[in-house]
């Protein structure tokens, strides 16, 4: 199970109302956001990933990362801020970690659904692309986050990053780009 940073109770005002309470159900499993977890990190990926190792290379990349890293949030955002320094100022100071952790959790959830069963959570990609347009975020910058997640996983996995994972991500990223940029 992959963890992403969370925040303190009562900090939900720092995020949008949509982010503040996502009681998503995947089958019989409930996926709680960071606000349901209190001070601890959000543990959401277990509802998406089966108990046994997945045969899907995208899921495998997250499974292996979860075994190596307690929290992907700082790694992903460090890379984002290094490659796109202008993004640092896009996050407000108060509640910054809370928002970043929530955004990453929702993004990973959407990636897994987009690459997998497409139960509906993948639609968040198009919705958030439109929302970020409203914030003035260039579409290329919005799409860049998906590649940054892939690159973070690749570096974290090292020798365990397989050709199958690389190929799956190479197919997935243009598909996400096309989906996010398709007219509504």
Structure write-up:
The protein has 184 residues and is mainly alpha-helical. The protein has eight helices and four strands, in the order βαββαβαααααα. The strands form two sheets. Strands 1-4 form a two-stranded antiparallel ribbon. It has a two-stranded antiparallel ribbon with strand order 2-3. Helix 6 (124-135) packs across helix 8 (163-181) and helix 7 (139-157) packs antiparallel against helix 8 (163-181). The radius of gyration is 15 Å and the shape is globular. The termini are far apart. The model is unreliable at 7-52 (pLDDT under 50).
What keyword list fits this structure?
two-stranded antiparallel sheet; Globin-like; 184 residues; mainly alpha
